[in-house]
Amino acid sequence: MAKIHQTFICQSCGAVYNRWRGRCEACNGWNTIVEETPGGSGPQAGPASTRASRARGRVFPLEGLTGEAKQAPRIPSGIAELDRVTGGGFVRGSVILLGGDPGIGKSTLLMQASAAMAGTGERVAYISGEEAVGQVRLRAERLGLADKPVELAAETNVEDIVETLSQGRPPALAIIDSIQTMWTETVESAPGTVTQVRSSAQSLIRFAKTTGTAVILVGHVTKDGQIAGPRVVEHMVDAVASFEGDQGHHFRILRAVKNRFGPTDEIGVFEMTDGGLAEVPNPSALFLAGRDHAAPGTAVFAGMEGTRPLLVEIQALVAPSSLGMPRRAVVGWDPNRLSMVLAVLEAHGGIRLGTHDVYLNVAGGLRIGEPAADLAVAAALVSSLSGAVLPSESVYFGEIGLSGAIRPVAQANARLKEAQKLGFARALTPQSRGESGATPLPTEALRHIADLVSGIAANAPRRAGSGRGSSRYDEEE
Questions:
Q1: What are the φ and ψ backbone dihedral angles of 273, each rounded to 5 degrees?
Q2: 304 and 257 share one domain
Q3: Residue 1's pLDDT band (boundaries 50, 70, 90)?
Q4: What are phi and psi of 310, to 5 degrees?
Q5: Residue 105 annotated in ligand binding
Q6: What are the pLDDT digits (tens) for 287-296?
Q7: Is 394 annotated as ligand-binding?
Q8: Amino acid 469: pLDDT
Q9: CB distance 314 to 300 below 8 Å
Q10: Which domain holds residue 129?
Q11: Phi, psi of 313 (to 5 degrees)
Q12: Which of 169, 321, 331, 468 could form a disulfide with 357 if both were Cys (CB 3.0 to 4.6 A apart)?
């Protein structure tokens, strides 16, 4: 009898060891290595009947680079914001991995998308591994979608799912909720383990490629925001989407992290309502709703998310600190970027912030990643420190260099058009690179961070004594 060699696999990154260890050397995770019986992780992975009958490989045709190149056919989902993120709809035979925090609305979004596609005559299957059929029906009734012809089942065995979906006309869309609950008979390990998740995903991907069915795999999210399971699954699928949001806010953002058939910088904005997720065609108005025009420390940033211009409010609070090391708290922006802007303001703008706590927030819970927000952040910080209220009809965008120079950013006209549409009358921007043509809005070009500081300081309230703003600028002058 042959000796069975046990395999120890890390449940976080999928690293394989020949003995148990307390800490994984690949991802530095503690107590993540679990013993598993080999059977689906090696090069001989797959059904036993297939491995036995294929002692020799089959010959497949090889084609050249010449030939007709066709665009991948797409199936519209019926939800414009979802189609924007996927690149125009679901590509036939593609596999999408959708991740998000528990309760963020992943199942609600997929239920609405499946109902919209089924209403156009396409065959759509929704396979739930976490909820019973009755629970899914209750959600559909709450959303007013109970009359849609969506095929529904509660199953976790991958072989049974593939065999059932293969009967009759191939589905246009199949939703697997979630991949962590699936298991395959070719692997002798518990559902949710690295080997099971990888093997189950491989079987579903093979089904999608052979039948042309678009498959959406729902993935759990760990505490640090990463999709649970082995990272190799993200490399196996065609697209990875993240459904973001905060339980305290009523809007949700769908962002593409990886997309082989479309852009990766587009976002879709949804609003959580009593009737489900509603599309937000004008997210700028949503993010700017309810802002205080007369409060210092607020600036409107004209940003870009893919091809969509987006206006958001940057809020800053600078207060004297009683601590030996002042606090820096950031929500919605890169903390390292904030440290750089603070250093530039102090070195080249003459602003003393070493004894002040700094709090920065992107209103509405949106996360901003582009460096074009540097100028708006600096304006909000100087406004909060000096007590000067920034003009409510102005928007800001521009990148700040370490020398204090304000550098141009891309797609300036699209940002200005969005600001003009929402009623803004002026924009503070970097010095242009010599582009010709009229701009949608009157602009004030800034070359250096000192120009921004002096402009805001001129409107700072002058108070007697050591009031906020007056004594600091008096000392500098």
A1: -120, 180
A2: no
A3: very low
A4: -140, 125
A5: yes
A6: 888 788 889 9
A7: no
A8: 41
A9: yes
A10: 75-281
A11: -100, 130
A12: 321
